[in-house]
Amino acid sequence: MATVQPAITRATFDEVILPIYAPAEFIPVKGQGSRVWDQQGKEYIDFAGGIAVTALGHCHPALVEALKRQGETLWHTSNVFTNEPALRLGRKLIDATFAERVVFMNSGTEANETAFKLARYYASTRHSPYKSKIIAFHNAFHGRSLFTVSVGGQPKYSDGFGPKPADIIHVPFNDLHAVAAVMDDHTCAVVVEPIQGEGGVTAATPAFLQGLRELCDKHQALLVFDEVQSGMGRTGSLFAYMHYGVTPDILTTAKALGGGFPVSAMLTTQDIASAFHVGSHGSTYGGNPLASAVAGAAFDIINTPEVLNGVSAKREQFVGHLQQIDAQFDVFSEIRGMGLLIGAELKPQYKGRAREFLHAGAQAGVMVLNAGPDVMRFAPSLVVESADIDEGMARFARAVGAVVSAR
Ligand SMILES: *Cc1c(COP(=O)(O)O)cnc(C)c1O
Fold first, then answer.
1. pLDDT, tens only, 249-261
2. Residue 1 clears pLDDT 90, i.e. is over it
3. Using a 6 Å cutoff on CB, does residue 198 contact ligand 1?
4. N or C: which end of the chain has fewer CB within 10 A?
5. Domains along the sequence of the chain with CATH
């Protein structure tokens, strides 16, 4: 006799999951392209993209095909054995970027943990054990392990977990003088997001990144770009560093890399990679055949002129709608970001209320994000249909209207 399964509802979340998230009241159960449906069959247009992850929308046929094919072939070997999908993906990433070596992990956090460990290790073995200082930025986000929250510039994520890793210093983003003031020969790395994502969708200025490059060269420090959110086509370039024309020594990528399948990578040069040796670092799942096969399929689609060149027109369409919404409701003080990583900062009278707009959006049938309490964030599929942008923004306009008139 079949046992009756208890119903799964939003209330189940509070009974079974750690209280570290505040998920929406509805539970998505199905997705196709830029549309998602919940348990009740209500449809949403997805401008959240799983936080800049589902860069080809939901259930893209090529990704489904790669997952199915690999799923019937070989799932996992561990790194005691290598595997073909990981080697193919590594080759693609090297061919398309500055990098000469790649290592795969499973999350943005792990890719950054790898990058920060490598930067310290490289400095201590090639230069001096005292060359350990990491310079990072206020409002930066680099992940949730103790090292990565400590390099991140939002103390609310690291306070209470101490003692924290030492010799990490934070200065204001886009402030080259502040960096120069703390930079010295004991610095092993400068870590920066070319576009701060979680911190409020703020792009670095070209002069800032160029200046960081020069300071790093002068002091033999490594320049680490965290492109976990800005990479894989999000800005219209494969990686944001290409747009800026400033090449890092180490780059991390995750989020869109697997299009929704957990996978991340750290890219670097042969010289820097060679500081590590067998046993220096590792991961059971990193570069797993399933993840690598899906990421390989996603890469082949994202790294094409059709997808990359399409980003700027889609951005213009989004920004046009946001400007119209602002003209009607007077809610935004600035619309910013790059490509399809779009931020809309709320006017002072709406500060702190980003999540209200997000909830109103869900009511109206559109999934959007916030980046902190004051900024609305949009990180849709890179191949979102023009008609979906129009329909989703019409729904978002209704949501904004509802929040504004509820005052
Ligand atoms: C999301 C994010 C991370 C963390 O990635 P996880 O996969 O959640 O560990 C790190 N850096 C940046 C810039 C991110 O946006």
1. 999 999 999 999 9
2. no
3. yes
4. N
5. 10-59+309-406 (3.90.1150.10), 74-303 (3.40.640.10)
